[in-house]
Amino acid sequence: MLTGLYSAAAGMIAQLDRHDVIANNLANISTAGFKRTSVGTHAFEVGLRYADQQGTQPYCKAVIPSTVLSRDQRPGPLIDGQEGSNVNAVEEMVNIISALRAYESCQRAIQSLDQVLDKAINVMNRTG
Fold first, then answer.
1. What is the C-alpha separation between 63 and 85, in angstroms, rounded?
2. Which of 39, 84, 111, 124 could form a disulfide with 18 if both were Cys (CB 3.0 to 4.6 A apart)?
3. CA distance 9 to 78
4. Can you point out the beta strands (E) in the chain?
5. What residue spans define the domains of the chain?
6. Dihedral of CA 53/54/55/57: which sign?
7. What DSSP string runs through 58-76?
8. What is the chain's pLDDT, residue by residue, as a tens digit (128 residues)?
9. How far is CA 80 from CA 74, 85, 89, in A?
């Protein structure tokens, strides 16, 4: 039961990281030469397996989402002889709405688990 709470909370943190990166992309849309940063997530266990392949021993086994940043190296449009930003405002706005919806779904999962735990505690209180 608590694993669900931890997973939903970790998902919320991952979506906050995604939101921050998208907001940074939008803030720098008019900066000459700015390269868009994208965010991906993978299970923490994948990162542990990668560390194990490199010869270092992982210290725990958990499935926690972790964020991975990557820089988009595509060139931006030329504006007055300078390379412009390669950020597409419409695409970033869609991404920020998607991140918000994912955050809200994790929030609803936490609320649902909280209600289930509340019922379980109240039932145990009456019978115990």
1. 36
2. 39
3. 42
4. 37-43, 65-71, 78-79, 82-83
5. 2-36+68-127
6. negative
7. PS-----EEEEEEE-----
8. 677 888 888 889 889 999 999 999 999 999 999 999 998 876 666 656 666 666 655 545 455 666 778 898 889 998 888 999 999 999 999 999 999 999 999 999 999 999 998 998 888 877 65
9. 18, 13, 20
